[in-house]
Write a structure and sequence with these properties.
The protein is mostly beta strands. It is built from 4 helices and 14 strands. The protein has a single domain, classed as Electron Transport, Fmn-binding Protein, Chain A (Pnp Oxidase, Chain A). A hairpin with a 5-residue loop joins β2 and β3. The mean pLDDT is 94.
Length: 201
């Protein structure tokens, strides 16, 4: 099968997000200029650079009550900071509850019953029980082709690691089984690993 996106795919559902998978989920916490905390998952998320550490996430839809994209992007545009919380398999239902299109005045931490803690390097809340949280300062917001497509880049200024996920000096992802997004309504968790030595090692 071959198709050009501009002409449609002819399948019951768009296969694009299923092709590019699995995708890590960035559970992005922000705070509005009015002090309202927001928490929302984004599967177009990844690390972007090592030194200094930088991350990115993309928002691909729009809310009518925001000046750009969704609550997360609008809050970051106004405050210049955000926090990326990593999603453990055990947090899947809480994460999913924060994915709804709620009013901008809704605090998703409260809505989903999620414990929060204050970040240390930025004015923002983080998910207390997350396996890891990355405190970030905005470096740039880039609007992509398409009216509702934005990519947010941030420099990581503080990292929280849950001590129970550090085993013999290694951050062991199998201790919390990170959740990743596939296509359609499907997700996957990381529960086994294998290693490959780099050719130059």
């Amino acid at each position: 099968m071959f198709y050009q996106p501009k002409n449609g795919h002819g399948l019951p559902h768009n296969p694009f997000s299923a092709i590019i998978s699995p995708r890590p989920i960035g559970w992005i916490s922000t705070r509005s200029k009015d002090g309202i905390d927001n928490l929302a998952p984004y599967s177009f998320f990844n690390a972007a650079a090592y030194e200094p550490p930088q991350v990115m996430f993309a928002s691909t839809s729009r809310k009518e009550d925001r000046h750009m994209s969704k609550d997360s992007v609008a809050n970051i545009d106004e405050t210049g900071v955000f926090c990326v919380n990593i999603v453990a398999y055990a947090m899947r239902d809480a994460m999913n509850k924060t994915s709804g299109a709620l009013d901008k005045s809704t605090d998703e931490f409260t809505h989903a019953g999620i414990e929060r803690s204050e970040c240390k390097t930025i004015a923002c809340s983080r998910v207390t029980e997350a396996p890891a949280s990355l405190e970030c300062k905005l470096t740039q917001i880039v609007q992509l082709k398409g009216e509702t497509n934005y990519v947010v880049f941030g420099e990581v200024t503080g990292i929280h690691l849950n001590d129970k996920n550090i085993v013999d000096g290694i951050y062991d992802v199998t201790t919390y089984q990170p959740l990743a997004r596939l296509g359609y309504k499907d997700y996957v968790r990381v529960d086994n690993l294998f290693s490959l030595a780099h050719p130059d090692q």
